[in-house]
Design a protein that fits this description.
Blueprint (H helix, E strand, L loop, with lengths): L6 E4 L3 E13 L2 E10 L4 E6 L3 H4 L2 E2 L3 H9 L14 H14 L2 H17 L4 H22 L3 H21 L1
Helix pairs in contact: 3-4, 3-5, 4-5, 5-6
Amino acid sequence: MFNPGDMICYPLHGVGFIEAIEEKEILGETKLYYVLNILHKNIHIMIPTDTAATSGMRKLIETKELDEILHKFYQSETEPDIFDNQRYCTNVNKTKMKSGDVYQVCEIIRDLTRKGRKSKLGTEDRNMLEKAREVFVSEIAQVKGIELEQANDLLDCVLNSTDEVVAAS
């Protein structure tokens, strides 16, 4: 269970915090809801407390885990045939985004960045990459205590440096 003031990451939106826990009656049913304030977007989202675990909402990762993720960003391989079927690739990426799992979001960034370096990304892929980066960059910024622009630059640096390592091998 989350408490007011907890920093969270919410799928498709990024970092926010639990502003309150409120009881609301909707369609004749009274439930407790987390009121989320999504940073950098100026939006509020209400999530039933009983479905929060399955919504992909989670606490932010720790600094150590973030550093490990950034260090190992490109070390794992992309599935060889993931780009052969666009519909399959899009569905897999949507599922990964909705999961809220930071590792799966990073896989989207890794795979679509690799794909984009081989050929031009289509609109769906560009939008998915942009959304995945937005979510991950917001978490980098919050965990590291830096501005979004700095977090974006850090991710670019990681992506570019891993390209150099891959090209050298």
